[in-house]
Design brief:
Layout (H helix, E strand, L loop, with lengths): L6 E4 L24 H19 L4 E4 L4 H8 L10 E5 L2 H11 L8 H9 L4 H4 L9 E5 L8 H9 L2
Helix pairs in contact: 3-4
Length: 159
């Protein structure tokens, strides 16, 4: 639980059945669409459905495009009040942030994303934001939060 009084889910949770747990330390080399990423994504969406079905408030965080999110999130609108906070920054700031965290964030394929950027791909310009009929707040995170984090919390907690 967090200070909002709700459970928080993050897409980067890696999942394995107990039988699959390694007996020796292993290194996960994430790549776009790898098995662990796909399993984590499936569990993430299962949680996003299960918890509201049981009356639990959830705040979910992940940077995913419309085609990944819409099909799995749209049914949640029938379970309660859905609020979307869509954060964005400019491509240069995003590049700096991904570069800075790439060596310490082992659950993500940041190195693959950096290669895409280096090849001249226009990933951020072509990024498709989530399109669900729900109250939405856009937040610019280039230099802090605009609107402020307090305004984001007020938006989330409005019924």
């Amino acid at each position: 639980m967090n200070r909002l009084g709700c459970w928080r889910a993050r897409r980067s949770v890696a999942t394995r059945s107990r039988e699959e747990w390694p007996t020796e330390p292993t290194v996960h080399d994430p790549t776009p669409g790898d098995v662990l990423t796909q399993r984590a994504l499936a569990v993430f969406f299962e949680l996003l459905h299960l918890l509201p079905e049981r009356g639990v408030t959830v705040v979910a965080e992940a940077a995913r495009q419309d085609e990944v999110w819409r099909a799995d999130l749209a049914p949640l609108t029938a379970l309660g009040s859905l609020r979307l906070v869509q954060c964005h920054t400019d491509p240069a700031t995003a590049w700096q942030r991904i570069s800075a965290r790439a060596t310490s964030r082992s659950a993500h394929a940041d190195h693959a994303l950096l290669q895409v950027f280096a090849s001249g791909d226009r990933y951020f310009e072509q990024f498709r934001r989530l399109t669900i009929a729900a109250p939405t707040m856009d937040v610019d995170t280039t230099a802090g939060y605009n609107p402020t984090i307090e305004q984001v919390v007020a938006f989330i907690t409005t019924t």
